[in-house]
Every structure is written in structure tokens, then in C-alpha cells.
Amino acid sequence: MNFFKLKRPENEEAKEERVKGKQSIDLGNGSEVIYIQRLVGFEKSWTFFDYLNKHIPWIRPTIRVCGRQCLQVKRPRDTCYVASPGLPEMGYSGYKPHAYTWDDFPPIKDLLDMVHEALPGSKFNSLLLNRYKGGNDYVGWHADDEKLYGPTPQIASVSFGCDREFLLKKRPMKSSQERRLDGEPASKRLKKISHVDQYSFTLKHGSLLVMRGYTQRDWLHSVPKRAKAEATRINLTFRQVV
Ligand SMILES: O=C(O)CCC(=O)C(=O)O
Ligand SMILES: [Fe+2]
């Protein structure tokens, strides 16, 4: 492992090459996604992948899922949580992960610097890591709309390893919102309804996907099972607890 490689200053040409393929997608009504195909160069991305795969204390906890009855089920991927000191505890489905510190994994601090540089003004203070060991590992439809991230969270997601598909779909409208639209002229109503309501991205090795604005309020996202994805993918989602 050669981490001083990560510290080598980058020239302007290399930086331009790195942020090549920046796309910004306006989802409408104040929601936006940005996709940078190459935040981290190819070789450096493998160095990160190997480090994370080996050194992160991955766990696959069981969580409580309640339908007609409550069941203990294994999460369909490995995870780990990192947070700055003093943040409120994070929990989901009755599971509270241990919060590691940034100092536990120094290379992640380098990655955080790169993300901050790509997103001027951002100040992430927590991180959820996911490891998908093959195409059967997945994350189902959800939104990261926990109150602790505030009403318009920016979430920056870096991927390493196997390409996987990332889907976004518009949340079903609440009946109160529908009633509001009912009161509007037909032309305006049509414009809102005809807006594209599903997007698919292939998240590449070394890429950065950012969700911002009202994306967590109005949209759901998922990384579905894929029979053909045999290799491991590691994903890091940087967040700001406010
Ligand atoms: O793996 C991904 O790209 C998404 C992960 C995710 O949505 C999450 O951790 O909340
Ligand atoms: Fe998510």
C-alpha cells in the first residue's frame, strides 16, 4: 500500500482530467443530482478500495423489520459508520452503529478533502460506508431524510470497485399535494406531472454522485440486486449532521 501517493500534489491538467464528465441533473422543484465520473483517478481508486476492503471493521448487523410481525433480518450489505466527535447518536431500525473517528482511518481523511474540494462550501461530519460483496447485496428504496441531516441535506457518495446501478424515483405524491395541484390550471398541472420521474446512473470506480436540495424529501433511491455483478463494490456516503 502506498499512501504517500495520495498526497502528491496534482497539476492543473490532472485535476481537469479528474473532474471530467461532470453532469448536473435538475430533478425539478429544487432537487438536484451531480455526477462526476472520475473524482479519484483509476489507480488511486484501487488503492482506496484495497485499504477500505481490508481495514474497515465491516459488520453485517441484523435489524428489526416490522410488517404483520417483527423479524430479525440480516442487512443485505456490510456497513460501518464514522463521525466527528460530539454528534448525536445515529440509529435506524433499532440498530445503533458504533461511531468510529476519522483518525481511525487516515486515508478516508484524504478522500474527505477531495470531496470538500469538489464541492466548495461543503462541510461533511459523518460517513456511512457500504460494502456490496456481489450482485445479491443491495440497498432497497429509501431516502436519507432523517431529521438530523436538516431539510435539504447534501449527500456525497463515492464509489470504488464493481460498477453498480443507482436508481432514483419520485416519491408518490401525498394526497394533500395532489389537492394543491387540483386547484391549478390544467396546463400547469400537466407540466408538473409530465416531469421525468425515474433516473438511472451507473456508479463507476472513482465516481462521485451528489444529491442535494429536496432530493431526500421528494425522491427515493436504491442500488438494486444485479445477478451479473459478481465483484465487490465499496461506497462511502458523506453527510452533514446539523
Ligand atoms: O451504495 C450506494 O450508492 C447508496 C448507499 C445509500 O443509499 C446509503 O447508504 O444510504
Ligand atoms: Fe441512501
Structural overview:
The chain has 242 residues and is α+β, with helices and mostly antiparallel strands. It has seven helices and 14 strands. The chain has an eight-stranded mixed beta sheet with strand order 1-2-12-9-14-7-5-6. A four-stranded antiparallel beta sheet has the order 8-13-10-11. Strand 1 and strand 2 form a beta hairpin. The radius of gyration is 19 Å and the shape is globular. The protein starts with a helix and ends with a strand. The relative contact order is 0.22. The site of 2-oxoglutaric acid (AKG) has 11 residues, from strand 7, strand 13 and strand 14. The site of 2-oxoglutaric acid has 11 residues, from strand 7, strand 13 and strand 14. Belongs to the alkB family. One of its GO terms (molecular function) is ferrous iron binding. InterPro entries: AlkB-like, AlkB-like_sf, ALKBH2, Oxoglu/Fe-dep_dioxygenase_dom.
Helical segment count? 7
Strand order of the largest sheet: 1-2-12-9-14-7-5-6
**Overall strand count:** 14
Portion in beta strands: 25-35%
Bound molecules: 2-oxoglutaric acid, fe (ii) ion
Mean pLDDT over the full residue set: 86
Cα separation of the termini: 35 Å
Assign the structural class, choosing from mainly alpha, mainly beta, alpha/beta, alpha+beta, or little secondary structure. alpha+beta
Order of helices and strands: HHEEHEEEEHEEEEHHEEHEE
Helix content: 10-25%
Major beta sheet summary: 8 strands, mixed
Spans of at least 5 consecutive residues whose pLDDT stays below 50 are 1-8, 189-194
Provide the gyration radius in Å. 19 Å
Global shape: globular
